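batch_manifest entry 22 of 60
target: Glutaredoxin-like protein
source organism: Neophocaena asiaeorientalis asiaeorientalis
requested by: lab member K.T.
priority: normal
notes from requester: please return tokens only, no post-processing; we will run our own comparison against the previous entry in this batch. if the run fails, retry once and flag.
--- input ---
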Amino acid sequence: MWKIKMLWFQGNSMQLAKHSFQLLLRNLSASKTALPVLTLFTKDPCPLCDEAKEVLEPYKNRFILQEVDITLPENSAWYDRYKFDIPVFHLNGQFLMMHRVDVSKLEKQLQKLEQQGAGG
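--- output ---
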């Protein structure tokens, strides 16, 4: 009987540890998703895209950069729309800028989102 209770206790503590770990992961992913997503529509090669990524380097801790290769078959709608305009940037799914990084526009939009996130 004692062994059965010990196994039951160990099983519950494992469940508790597993649950705590899941909560920790959920909180970590929630804090990561709090950052805005900057989507770069690009293709290879794209010298202007490479240049834009260099300009974005000082801001990289303020957003998650998501690159979308418009030449992939699943991105054909983006190819049709942006084939002559890359690099194109969306911030949280909304068009932001194209051709070159407009640093003042990026800064303004990031500040706006950061203030909203801080409850301001």
